[in-house]
Amino acid sequence: MGLLDDKVVLVNGGSQGVGAAIARAAVREGAVVAVTGRRTEPGEALVAELAAGGAKAMFVRADLSDADQAKASVAEVVDAYGRIDCLVNSAGLTSRGTLLDTTPELFDQHIAINLKAPFFAMQAAVTDMVARKAPGTIVNIITTSAHGGQPFLAPYVSAKAGLIGLTRNAAHAHRWDRIRINGLNIGWTATEGEDATQKAFHGAADDWRDSAAAGLPMGKLGQPDEIADFVVFLLSERSGVVTGSVIDWDQNVLGGMD
Predict the structure, then answer these.
(1) What is the distance between the alpha carbons of residues 235 and 239, in angstroms, rounded to a whole number?
(2) Considering 59, 120, 156, 249, which one is annotated as catalytic?
């Protein structure tokens, strides 16, 4: 449909998982795409895949826990393509910690990746949009756990709940600049990162996805490509004037009880 024809889209944390799926979906809808990641190999492999299909794409190596690198990732895209039209903050740290065993170091890591990086990437992107007096769109990938979450997600929930507040604050601040900023609270999703987390922290077997899916209402975990399609819709003009919305993209209903 060409929902993002000629748009320049930066997907932070876009070299794998949900971010990579968003990059692929954006390209299918006509976008020029840049993705960031800490590891060069998967990032360059994704860009090569996109380029082989005829897309214009670039990889920016960045450790988003460093606010300067988060801002620089936007600057590199603007230098390469002259502007940034859309930003997706999809990088996330999901390492475990409870209120009682989380160290200051672990807490700071979660704040750096899950809140500080989106803040300063948004700052850089919005600065470019405002300077050009141009509209733009931003989508922050958050989590349904931000509503409370499991006890072992204390620092993760703290940071992601902050991202909800930031999303709404920034959307309100820049609505007259025609910059729309929304968030997506995704539920349990089948990604490479989740596979590693389940095995590292919960001793999951290789078939954990099957047993997990059997316990879910729709009989499956969230799929990255489905999330990606929704994100593209939010980035595009087809989502109209919607801004400041944080949408629960999940199969469990907040507040519902059996």
Answers:
(1) 7
(2) 156
Distance (Å, whole) CA 97 – CA 159: 12
82 token code pair: 């002259």
Amino acid at 176: W
Distance between CA atoms of residues 30 and 237, nearest Å:
13
The DSSP symbol for 147 reads G
**Token reading at 158:** 């703290």
The pTM of the whole model exceeds 0.70? yes
Predicted confidence at residue 255, as pLDDT, reads 87
CA pair distance 60, 77, nearest whole angstrom: 8
pLDDT tens for each residue of 222-243: 899 999 999 999 999 999 999 9
Closest C-alpha to 237, from 50, 85, 22: 85
For 59-80, how does the pLDDT look when each residue is reduced to its tens digit (9 = 90+)?
999 999 999 999 999 999 999 9
Q: Looking at this protein, which amino acid is placed at residue 67? A: A
Q: φ, ψ for residue 250 (rounded to 5)?
A: -160, 170
Label residue 87 by pLDDT band (50, 70, 90): very high
Active site residue 81: no
Q: What DSSP letter does each residue of 61-117 carry, written as one string? A: E--TTSHHHHHHHHHHHHHHHS---EEEE-------B-TTT--HHHHHHHHIIIIIH
